[in-house]
Specification:
single chain; alpha+beta; 2-methylcitrate dehydratase PrpD; 60s Ribosomal Protein L30, Chain: A; 2 domains; 4-stranded mixed sheet; two-stranded antiparallel ribbon; 21 helices
Length: 459
């Protein structure tokens, strides 16, 4: 390969910084912005977010960027940290299933802070965000799955690279500065999977956003990085995965022709991706139960789901917080069965200490189905004490590329998520501002709608 990985990525960044991403990609990126707002509005009062806001205040951070849903005026890097955690903590954000990651949480907070402070147009903001996500997903496609198997949080590992790329684009850095920015992000990548089920995971995503932002800023000042930061001896590829270097050329050759940003999965409920198909199956069966008593349930899922769920049961035991409950597929299904719905409340203390829910959790068996190529779908059999049973199957749950949400469906999920926190009129104003980003002279209208003390707003 004549160019290094960093040089190839920079050529892609420069090309689409100049001519703009395709319209379809641009629109999908606006959808991803709205999706993150949906993911974060219910997290405004989460303890992890409160801790980070307190840390920012104690550090004396002041500036011209906002902490979303609160109105705190802080530095760009502080905004990136807190907003990254806001986007991540409920696990209600996007998932790029082929690379097991939330690709937007590490990129959006960084580039949004710069766009707000420097007064960039909505089009420039969305374009830079799209480029940054695409760079991140290209890097992730090379590293995954073995980087995940080694124990790295995929979005933490590659989100800083995407954030650095997006910030470098919107800031108009030179090609050398861009290369150094993403190189610095590569050599400082981090994030361990042991963080899942704790406040460590949203912290990682916030710090990842900050790391990418800082990489672009210091690259603009002359800080350099190795040109072979990715593929070089002890570089990112070798240090973080067991993938073959032969993958590199094929993945990078697709840049600009195959847009991975178009293969994102959206969520309808606030829990991790592997639980969505099981919940969708359960919701098919709920109306058919008709008072019967459930004896046991069997979920046929992609084999990796069984491995993940069993590892977590062994590590966490019974859920002890909303964070561990969210990452317990059996518990989520049992909670939804008992309560007939699934919202943030179904993962809070009243639910995860409910003896009936915990007893049902023990009656749910996950069975590896080698015919399932991914966790977009599953099947569920529910057996009742009277000897009867019910069956449901989902091949692609709502929000996956195989069963995508429409713009209106996504807007409705935002309405439901924000409805208990924000007035209906304010919600519609936010929706209008997101969809109009392509013509907005700056991101100020959107950020002004998002930056207020949510606790003081009447629903």
């Amino acid at each position: 390969m004549s160019k290094t990985v960093s040089e190839t990525l920079v050529a892609f960044m420069q090309e689409y910084a100049e001519k703009g991403v395709p319209d379809r990609v641009f629109h999908e990126t606006k959808r991803l912005v709205l999706n993150q707002l949906k993911a974060s509005v219910g997290a405004h009062d989460h303890p992890a977010v409160a801790i980070l806001r307190n840390w920012v205040e104690l550090s004396g951070s002041k500036g011209k960027a906002h902490v979303l849903w609160h109105g705190d005026m802080v530095s760009a890097e502080s905004a990136a940290v807190v907003n990254g955690a806001l986007f991540e903590v409920l696990d209600f954000n996007d998932t790029h299933i082929p690379t097991y990651q939330h690709a937007v949480s590490g990129v959006l907070p960084a580039v949004l802070a710069l766009a707000e402070i420097d007064g960039h147009s909505g089009r420039d903001f969305v374009n830079a965000l799209a480029i940054g996500i695409e760079v991140e997903l290209a890097v992730a496609t090379i590293l995954i799955p073995t980087a995940y198997y080694r124990g790295f949080v995929p979005g933490g590992l590659t989100g800083g690279v995407g954030a650095a790329a997006a910030c470098a684009v919107i800031a108009g850095l030179t090609s050398d500065q861009m290369r150094n920015a993403i190189g610095l992000a590569m050599v400082s990548a981090f994030g361990l999977y042991a963080s899942v089920g704790s406040m460590g995971l949203p912290y990682i995503m916030g710090m990842t956003a900050r790391s990418g932002l800082n990489a672009a800023e210091i690259a603009s000042l002359g800080m350099t990085a190795p040109s072979t930061a990715f593929e070089g001896d002890k570089g990112m590829l070798e240090s973080h995965s067991d993938e073959s270097p032969e993958k590199i050329a094929g993945v990078l050759a697709q840049l600009g022709s195959t847009w991975r940003v178009l293969k994102q999965t959206y969520k309808t409920v606030p829990t991790e991706t592997i639980t969505h198909a099981p919940l969708e199956c359960l919701f098919q069966i709920l109306p058919r139960i008709n008072g019967r008593t459930v004896d046991r349930m069997e979920l046929l899922v992609e084999p990796i789901v069984v491995k993940i769920a069993n590892e977590r049961m062994e590590r966490f035991g019974k859920p002890s917080s909303d964070l561990t409950a969210r990452f317990d597929t059996r518990f989520c299904v049992a909670s939804a069965l008992k309560r007939g719905t699934f919202t943030i409340a179904e993962m809070m203390e009243a639910a995860y200490t409910d003896p009936e829910i915990l007893a049902m959790r023990e009656k749910i068996e996950l069975i590896a189905d080698p015919k399932r190529p991914t966790f977009d779908g599953c099947s569920l059999s529910v057996y009742f004490t009277d000897g009867t049973s019910e069956f449901a199957n989902v091949d692609d749950f709502v929000g996956t590329p195989g069963n995508p949400m429409t713009d209106e469906q996504l807007s409705d999920v935002f309405r439901r998520s924000a409805g208990s926190h924000i007035s209906a009129g304010h919600i519609e104003d936010i929706l209008e501002a997101v969809w109009a980003l392509d013509t907005a002279p700056n991101v100020g209208r959107l950020t002004s709608l998002l930056n207020f003390n949510l606790e003081n707003v009447c629903a």
